[in-house]
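Input record (one chain):
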Amino acid sequence: MDDKDGREVAQMNQLSVTGTLGILLKAKSMGYIPEVKFLIDMLRSEKHFWIDERMYQKALSLAGE
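The corresponding structure, as predicted from the sequence alone:
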């Protein structure tokens, strides 16, 4: 499913939205994963996950990486 379409439907139904990066950051903060950089890089290279460079750097900063 396209993330944009899913977000729009969720927002129309007044559901909170958490994207892939948010889930990874939460998983790190809860101790489920040791780092997010490796996973984000893998998503970008192997799964063609597109992310703006500024958002990438922000996610790493929020993760303390």
